[in-house]
Amino acid sequence: MSLPPLPSTLTDLYKDRERPPDNPDRHQGRIRARAHVDGSWPVHVYLEIKLSHELFDIVSTLTKTARSIVPSTVSMLQSVESLKKKNNAPVEAESAEDATELHISLTRPIYLQELHLGHFASEVRDAFKSRKRFNIHFSGVQSFSNDDQTRSFLSLRVGAGHAQLESLVAEMDVIVQRYSQPKFYPDPQFHASFAWALGGGVLDSEVVKSMSELDSELGHDLRHSSIVVKKVSWKIGQKTGSVDLLVQ
Fold first, then answer.
1. N or C: which end of the chain has fewer CB within 10 A?
2. Would you state the pLDDT for residue 11?
3. Whether the Cβ atoms of residue 136 and residue 158 lie closer than 8 Å to each other
4. pTM of the entire predicted model
């Protein structure tokens, strides 16, 4: 005799934790850097950087310049509206209001067991809930490649505010080591990536050099645009959280 089917209240219980298979067509050719392991979740702690109209225009110009050299360059400023349509590939943002945020990482890519996720988030929240907001400025453009050399990036390099970011990373290093995860990169070069291409070294120093012609036009505005860091955010799987920093 066959058993009766489980009720939907049980079969849907963990639906929000299901992970869809990789589909490079929906992610501009990207694939998962690490194979999925049951019970292990990717975790990232970072700062959200919402660009002003002025900075958005600067980044858009820099991206177009990079694309003229490397046509496969993809903007990381995606349309918020397009992301709401889950079955469609993301669309590049055309305005600051409709653009997603850029990120400044405070951890390497790390992986935690499910039983540790709640406690980890609580530790991050407790570590920064008494921290004050601060300002950062960008000092120029820099190129990076990810650890496994599958993608290269163009990024805005942080100038003023570097010391405050080092302090946040030092706090995060203590936390991640409790979970046997690697500390942040030595001699960190804090940055907010705004464009990427498949392949390590594709967006390289030569691409950055091509932007030097724009320095007199855009460099002053870039270096003098101030951004207030208002919160520390984290992403665990597909779920996000954050802790607000105190108003000075």
1. N
2. 46
3. yes
4. 0.83
